Amino acid sequence: MTETVKGPASYFPSIEKKYGRPIAEWKGLIRSSPLTKHMELVAWLKAEHGMGHGHANALVAHTLAEDSGR
Questions:
Q1: What is the 3-state secondary structure (H, E, C) of 6-25?
Q2: How many domains does the chain have?
Q3: What domain range is 26 assigned to?
Q4: InterPro entries, alphabetically (predicted)?
Q5: Quick check: is 56 in a domain?
Q6: Phi/psi class of residue 61: alpha, beta or left (left: φ > 0; alpha: ψ in -120 to 50)?
Q7: At a CB cut-off of 8 Å and minimum separation 6, what does 49 contact?
Q8: What does the pLDDT read at residue 1?
Q9: Exposed, middle or buried, 46 (CB in 10 Å: 0-12/13-18/19+)?
Q10: Per-residue pLDDT of the chain in tens (70 residues, 90 and over written 9)
């Protein structure tokens, strides 16, 4: 039986489909940005890449959580 994906990662299939880039590429863009604060990054994804708030928030939250665990 397949485990259901929960949390920010549950948005990843629709993000890839809607915006045409793999999640790894989005995470790379977030990590290469000079911005560091969550809401600054969300606003940047929305303004520069036309991303919706929920998708941008999920990507930023997941990326920052990964980075804080390293």
A1: CHHHHHHHHHHHHHCCCHHH
A2: 1
A3: 10-68
A4: DUF4287 (IPR025629)
A5: yes
A6: alpha
A7: 19, 29
A8: 54
A9: middle
A10: 567 888 888 999 999 999 999 999 999 999 999 999 999 999 999 999 999 999 999 999 999 999 997 6
Whether residue 1 lies inside any domain: the answer is no
Whether 4 is covered by a domain: the verdict is no
Write out the H or E segment, with its range, that includes residue 2. Answer: none
Q: Which whole-number Å values give the CA distances from 18 to 12, 66, 70, in the listed order? A: 10, 23, 29
**8 A C-beta contact, residue 6 and residue 50:** no
Residue 64: the pLDDT is 97
Per-residue model confidence (pLDDT) at position 3 = 72
Determine phi and psi for 39, rounding to 5 degrees. Answer: -70, -25
Do the domain assignments include residue 5? no
Cα–Cα distances in angstroms (integers) from residue 44 to residues 3, 9, 29, 49, 65, in the given order: 32, 20, 11, 8, 18
